[in-house]
Structures are given as C-alpha cells and as structure tokens.
Amino acid sequence: MNELALLIAATLAAGTPLAIAGLGLLLNERAGVVNLGAEGMLLVSAVAGFAAAHDGGSEWLGFLAGAAGGAAVAAVFGWLVVWLNTNQYATGLAVSLFGSGFSAFVGIGYVGKQLGEQPPHRVPFLADLPFVGPALFRHHPVVYLAIALVAAAAFFLYRTRAGLLLRAIGESPQSAHALGYGVRRIRFAAVVTGGALCGIAGAYLSVVYTPLWVEGMVAGRGWIALALTVFATWRPGRILLGAYLFGGVTMLQLHLQARGVHVPSQFMAMLPYVSTVVVLALISRNPLWIRLNMPASLGKPFFPGA
C-alpha cells in the first residue's frame, strides 16, 4: 500500500510539467496557432530557471525566469508566424532546434551544479493522513498550481467572453476580424501566454523535479505535451488526465526496474514515447472525430486584407 502511495505521488510529480506545457500549447491551438517549438521553449526555460534559482538562491526566482524565458522565445515565434505569416510548422521546428542549441551553450557553466536542498512541502493536517497523505498532500505547490491552472483555463474558455472570442478566432479568424476584433493581437497574446506556461513547466523540471541542469534534460517532454493536445481533443480537463497517464507510464517503468522486473532498461525507457504513438494512432483512426473537435483554422495563416 505504501508503494502504491509513492507511485501515485511520483505520477503527479512527473505529470505536472506535461500538464502545464500541454495547457500552454492548447491555448495556442485554440487560437489557431500550432507551436512545434515546445521542446526548445522548455529547454530555454529550464536553463533560465536553473540559472536564476542557483545564482539568486530562490526557486521562485527560477520560476519567474523560466516563465520569462519561455514567453520571450514564444514572442519571437509569435512575431514570425502571426505578424510575418511564416509557416507555423517550419518556424516551430526552427525554434525547437534553436532552443536545444542555445540552452546547451548557455548552460555549459551550470553542468554538474545542484541547487540547495529545499524543505519538504506538506499540506497541514492532510499530509499526515494514512495513504492519501503521502500520495496527494506532500507535493511542491506547483503540482497543485497545475490543477488550478487547468480549472482556470476551462472556466476561461467556456465561461467567459474572452474565452469565447479566443475559440472563435481559432474557428474563423475572418469572421472575428469582420466584427472588429484584433485577431493578430489576440493570437500573439495567446502564443506568449502559452510560452510562459511552457516556461513554468521547464523551470519545474530543472528547479524542482531534478533539480539540476543537464543538456537535453527535457528528453522529449515538449513533443509529448504537443501530442497531449490531440489526445485531449483540445479540452483542458483531458490535458490533465493525459499528463498523469503519461507521467504514470514513466514512473511505472522506474518502479518495475526497482522491483527487479527483468525487462531491458532501454525498452522500459521507450514506454512513455511508445504509449504516445499508440494513443495518437488510435485517435487518428477516426479523422471525422478529430475534425469535429480541432479548431478549424489550426495552422492556417491569417491575412487581414484577404
């Protein structure tokens, strides 16, 4: 029973960066913008967050720097695809490659360094409960922030006028423009906000989850977060479910290795990515279902004069 509680706790911790990054990408795509640069944004924000936390002595300073780094990279991406109408897919791949190289260069001086030990996090009274205490109530505040952000995003998208406008732009930017709304401005704001969320996720990896900086430490999580938007059919609540599912797969392979299950470690390490491919393959079997849920203008440039 204690092992199960620890597995649940590890699943929540592993799924948190996926949930936050996936939520940021979902906001992008709800506005009609595909950002394939998530991996690069996570890497830039991870090194920025670690550097700020290490040099500044505060993990919250690290989160602030990570969010700023992610937002800055996203702003460059947004300027290219929203204002200059460059190809979203090619630009996103370029951002991903840039982030990988830039983070490796900037982070050379931080390789091998570690942050100071942080005090354990506990929810008063609830953390002492049997089973549910260690499973649910001994996490870093960002774990609970991820859940709150998902709830806030769901409320924003489906219960507010601004959220309705964002979804309308993702469906038909020409109609929104005809009504007098600034489509480019709103799309750019969505891209930068999504980048800031990816920045928080990247900082969480290097400041809390590890906590250290290693080149390429994001290890494909940006691509998994991107796949989560399709898995979730562009709904915030399902982003959280999918993030914990993939986080659970990651932790399960480590748990089985610790229990002495005789499976090649390389195969176990493949499980999170294999499960991502399998899920996407299953979803893709029903293209009509995807078209009914996918924003109609996703990946398409917008020309105000057209």
List strands and helices in order, with pairings.
Elements: H1 2-30, H2 38-56, H3 59-83, H4 88-106, H5 132-136, H6 141-159, H7 161-171, H8 173-178, H9 183-209, H10 221-231, H11 236-258, H12 265-283, H13 287-293
Structure description:
The protein is an all-alpha fold and 306 residues long. The protein has one domain (2-293): ABC transporter involved in vitamin B12 uptake, BtuC (Orthogonal Bundle), CATH 1.10.3470. Helix content is 72%, strand content 0%. It is built from 13 helices and no strands. Helix 1 (2-30) runs antiparallel to helix 11 (236-258) and helix 6 crosses helix 7 (161-171). The termini are far apart. The model has no long low-confidence stretch (mean pLDDT 90). It is a multi-pass membrane protein. InterPro entries: ABC_transp_permease.
CA-based shape: globular
Low-pLDDT windows of residues:
none
Overall pLDDT score: 90
What Rg, in angstroms, do the CA atoms define?
A: 19 Å
Intertermini distance: 62 Å
Total strands: the figure is 0
Order of helices and strands: HHHHHHHHHHHHH
Portion in beta strands: under 5%
Largest sheet descriptor = none
The percent of residues in helical segments reads: over 70%
Tally of discrete structural domains: 1
Structural class: mainly alpha
* CATH architecture label name: Orthogonal Bundle
- Any idea of the CATH class? Mainly Alpha
* Total helical elements: 13
